[in-house]
Amino acid sequence: MSATTVTTPQELATANPLDDARAQLRAAVELLGYDEGTYAMLATPRREVTVGIPLRRDDGSQEVFVGHRVQHNFSRGPAKGGVRFSEHVDLDEVRALAMWMTWKCALLDVPYGGAKGGVRIDPRRYSPSELERVTRRYTSEILPVIGPDKDIPAPDIGTDERTMAWMMDTYSVSCGYTVPGVVTGKPIALGGSRGRASSTSRGVVHIALAAMESRGLTPARTSAAVQGFGKVGRGVARFLADAGVRVRAVSDVHGAIVADEGIDIPALEAHVDATGSVVGFSGAETLEESLLELDVDVLVPAAVEGVLTAENAPRVKARIVVEGANGPTSPEADMILEANDVLVVPDILANAGGVVVSYFEWAQANQTYWWSEAEVERRLAERMLTTWEQVNSYAGTRRLSLRSAAMAMAVERVVTAHGLRGLYP
Ligand code: GLU
């Protein structure tokens, strides 16, 4: 590991993500000419559950964690969204992430509302059996509000297919029969979908390539930097490199590396598998400046929310920002980037591949009929690129940024569904 002090994305992200999410909603509501009551309805989650999760540690001592499940909206179907295990989880963050899920599902036209869960725990500090106990207790605490027709959790930061297997098992044991449709992002052996693990990254790269084309950039002449080397960033780096893009820099929570001629991503993946970090990879140098401000064509923030701010946005040199993370750009940063003619492809479009294939997984599980990987990939690409075209044409005819267009399209769909159903009682 390098001795250099690094600023992690989470340290940069100081603002409250819920303020950002609500500011984006406010702008969409104003654009669409809706009233204050509509804003208030959409700014307020439908249901929030906060639970205490006691854990008996392997050494016999006890600890208690706080967990949340926020269901932001059900107008278009059951709530849907990941579960995050991180020491930075708080209720406002989960509320923001749940709201973004509502817009993402509406924009991609998957028949869900939005939800998110989180447990404030650093999963790296606990053994697999401790994490299993935390996951099962959290699941049993939120059990009354989840289910294949109610709210369907999935992986997010700090959770994975193993976490989903424990959640599905805990839920199924309580029902007395196996319910594969209660979570998505499960192992394939338990009814997970082929192509789900790589789907968010694949979707980001479909959109990045389309954005590059719209700006006249060919992969062979394009350079990129990727912030984050987890479930999203790692696949993004690999698929960009496969497409011929020169991936100049990548980072993780431990540090950032750069190679001007392009990083050999398969070799870096082997290094990360062996050491747990991108730091110390022999095929690159330590990056001393901020990865977000590097002179590249395409920047993919694929770590956490709130990393592009009014402070650093003026120094972004990339021509295209593709949001692999949820909420990486503050509204102030958005305005600065737009004024500087940086094309920002918003999270609710760019990183929607995960929930799109979650929907495919849920549909397959509910029908107990499994699709081939090629079928999943074909449908994912088709849905991402169709939505890209729709957002571009909405933005083009109304002279809007891609974020304003995507948000307006999504909010309008939710309000239409809400209007058709009516307000009860
Ligand atoms: N956690 C992912 C996201 O933020 C996936 C959610 C899901 O598949 O439900 O989009």
Could you give a quick summary of the protein structure above?
The protein has 425 residues and is α/β, with parallel strands linked by helices.
CATH topology of the largest domain: Rossmann fold
State mean pLDDT (0 to 100 scale): 96
CATH C-level class of the largest domain is Alpha Beta
CATH architecture annotation name of the largest domain: 3-Layer(aba) Sandwich
What separation lies between the terminal Cα atoms? 60 Å
Radius of gyration: 21 Å
Number of continuous helical runs: 14
Task: List the ligand species.
Answer: glutamic acid
Beta strand % = 15-25%
What class, by secondary structure content? alpha/beta
Series of H and E elements: HHHEEEHEHEHHEHEEHEEEHEHHHH
GO molecular function: glutamate dehydrogenase (NAD+) activity; nucleotide binding
Active site: 116 (proton donor)
Binding site for substrate: 80, 104, 358
Binding site for NAD(+): 200
